[in-house]
Amino acid sequence: xxxxxxxxxxxxxxxxxxxxxxxxxxxxxxxxxxxxxxxxxxxxxxxxxxxxxxxxxxxxxxxxxxxxxxxxxxxxxxxxxxxxxxxx
Length: 88
Fold this sequence. Notes:
Number of strands: 0
Structural class: mainly alpha
Helix content: over 70%
Order of helices and strands: HHH
Strand content: under 5%
Shape: flat
Distance between the termini: 33 Å
């Protein structure tokens, strides 16, 4: 993989992470208990990724593992934890 491809991949990943965070906050604003909605969304994503890890295909397991690591990293920002850096 070239440096240019790696840079493009990292940039795409960063954009997708921010998109997930922004969409989660946008959707949750429609409800009285937005924190509970954001928590439910994170729990649902985690449940689906953990189900992927149980599939026999090694590629699915690896993808799910990486996705769960990314979710763990952005979860505080999704949930709006004060120390994790709020949305702009």
